[in-house]
């Protein structure tokens, strides 16, 4: 199978998975937000910070190394698998031991009874974790997509069901555990057929993965810290009640897009890794991915921000009104994260995990300093600081990618300009439409539906006018895929 054909099929399946999982998680968020309190979401955000840090060590950085190296012997597969198992056991023990420290840091004793439950995930994840990397390396995205959707369905049903039964924050915890268990077990069932590990274990089998994996762990730790330092500081200084709306705003506006972005970037890394020595191919692929992500993500983020005064109360209820302004501010943050997303695949495909590591270290230190200064001013100040720093960091990261690919700013901006401008035009019209609609029908499901319809029509017309050839090529690609079946 050609790389183009493999990429097309990969995008199709990861697209199906990304959209389905994002839709299920958004549905779960909307329903559960009406059943749980802002404090419950704030507590969950507190718990997920140590869980996120622990997760960066879960595969010891070997997942991406497996994809990058391309060839893995049976002995190496076994040694890597048992290393992942051992790491999971160690992480579980460390989290249990660190639980009192986390509760003390947040000044929140309820953490003592909540964090140990979430830590159980690290006894479940190693069962199938490595097989996802092997399936991804071999471009078997159909199996991965089916498993992810099944896990999301199970987690959504469990979370909503337990919330309806009055389990409170435990609905979020147990729903997440069930989703992780389904994902891990199904990956093991599929992967065991080809890569069943033996009882073999030798440290020397890990040697060639160690340096790449070490930088991956470091990069993920730095990235995890920079992504959660706001949660850390808000949770410690302002408490779970204030953290709740901030968390929900982030999950509503940024998290869905970050789940959709890997539709292409997950496929891009193994594809780029196979062509890592061909700069022209990498440059073209990077521009195509950037353009498509802008095409899909910009209208979603701009549209949600423009209609936030009606979307938030209609979807989540009146008690979440504090999240409206946060949604409006965090939307551009999501756009900047979307633009920066493909750079990770390029750095890994070029074997420059070290550059990714140091860039994330810089961002982590920057966020810690700035957020520490503004946290007492409230979540709005934190969100504004997040936006300003996000813009600066996007510029710095893109300068690095331009250098590695021999890319100019003019070429890069030319790839994303029309989609971005079209989304901004749509956002202005949607917000103006809301000012016209509000006095007549107020905040309602009808007004929300009208804004969605107006936004969809305006954006579609803008794209059809500004990107006729691109739309035509996309249609031809879909036809080619259907004819090739």
Automatic annotation (TrEMBL):
Q: Which Pfam families does the record associate with it?
A: Polysacc_synt_3 (PF13440)
Q: Which residues cross the membrane?
A: 12-31, 43-68, 80-102, 114-132, 144-163, 169-192, 292-316, 352-375, 381-405, 412-437, 443-465
Instruction: Please name the InterPro entries in this protein's record.
Output: Poly_Biosynth_Transport
The cellular location(s) given in this protein's UniProt record come to: Cell membrane
Q: Which residues form a coiled coil?
A: none
- One Gene Ontology cellular component annotation held by this UniProt entry: plasma membrane
Q: Tell me the keywords, alphabetical order.
A: Cell membrane, Membrane, Transmembrane, Transmembrane helix
This protein's membrane topology, according to the annotation, is:
Multi-pass membrane protein
* Major localization class: membrane
**Which PANTHER family does the record associate with it?**
LIPOPOLYSACCHARIDE BIOSYNTHESIS PROTEIN WZXC (PTHR30250:SF10), PST FAMILY PREDICTED COLANIC ACID TRANSPORTER (PTHR30250)
Q: Spell out the family assignment given in the record's similarity comment.
A: Belongs to the polysaccharide synthase family.
Q: What is this protein called?
A: Polysaccharide transporter, PST family/teichuronic acid exporter
Q: Which organism is it from?
A: Bradyrhizobium canariense
């Amino acid at each position: 199978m050609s790389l183009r054909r493999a990429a097309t099929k990969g995008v199709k399946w990861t697209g199906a998975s990304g959209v389905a999982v994002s839709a299920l998680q958004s549905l779960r968020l909307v329903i559960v937000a009406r059943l749980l309190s802002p404090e419950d979401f704030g507590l969950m955000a507190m718990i997920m910070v140590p869980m996120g840090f622990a997760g960066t060590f879960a595969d010891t950085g070997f997942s991406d190394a497996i994809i990058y190296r391309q060839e893995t012997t049976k002995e190496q597969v076994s040694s890597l698998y048992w290393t992942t198992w051992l790491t999971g056991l160690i992480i579980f023990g460390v989290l249990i031991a660190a639980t009192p420290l986390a509760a003390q840091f947040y000044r929140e004793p309820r953490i003592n009874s909540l964090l140990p439950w979430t830590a159980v995930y690290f006894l479940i994840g190693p069962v199938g974790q490595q097989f996802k990397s092997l399936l991804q390396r071999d471009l078997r995205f159909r199996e991965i997509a089916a498993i992810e959707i099944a896990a999301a369905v199970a987690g959504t049903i469990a979370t909503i069901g337990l919330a309806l039964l009055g389990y409170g924050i435990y609905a979020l915890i147990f729903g997440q555990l069930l989703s992780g268990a389904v994902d891990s077990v199904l990956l093991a069932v599929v992967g065991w057929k080809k890569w069943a590990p033996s009882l073999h274990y030798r440290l020397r089998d890990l040697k060639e993965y160690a340096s790449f994996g070490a930088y991956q762990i470091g990069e993920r730790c730095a990235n995890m810290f920079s992504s959660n330092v706001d949660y850390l500081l808000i949770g410690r200084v302002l408490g779970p009640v204030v953290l709740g709306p901030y968390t929900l705003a982030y999950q509503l506006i940024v998290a869905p897009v970050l789940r959709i972005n890997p539709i292409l970037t997950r496929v891009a890394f193994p594809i780029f890794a196979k062509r890592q020595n061909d700069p022209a191919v990498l440059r073209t692929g990077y521009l195509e991915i950037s353009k498509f992500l802008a095409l899909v993500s910009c209208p979603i983020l701009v549209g949600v921000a423009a209609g936030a005064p009606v979307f938030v109360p209609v979807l989540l209820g009146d008690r979440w009104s504090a999240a409206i302004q946060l949604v409006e501010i965090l939307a551009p943050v999501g756009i900047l994260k979307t633009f920066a997303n493909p750079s990770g695949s390029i750095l890994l495909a070029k074997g420059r995990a070290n550059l990714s590591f140091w860039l994330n270290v810089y961002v982590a230190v920057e966020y810690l300093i700035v957020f520490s200064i503004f946290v007492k001013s409230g979540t709005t100040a934190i969100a504004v600081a997040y936006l300003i720093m996000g813009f600066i960091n996007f510029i710095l990261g893109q300068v690095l990618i331009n250098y590695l690919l021999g890319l100019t700013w003019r070429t890069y901006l030319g790839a994303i300009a029309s989609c971005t401008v079209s989304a901004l035009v749509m956002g202005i019209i949607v917000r103006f439409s809301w000012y016209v609609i509000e006095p007549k029908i107020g905040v309602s499901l009808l007004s929300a539906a009208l804004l969605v319809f107006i936004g969809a029509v305006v954006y579609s017309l803008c794209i059809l006018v500004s990107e006729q050839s691109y739309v035509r090529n996309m249609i031809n690609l879909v036809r080619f895929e259907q004819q090739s079946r």
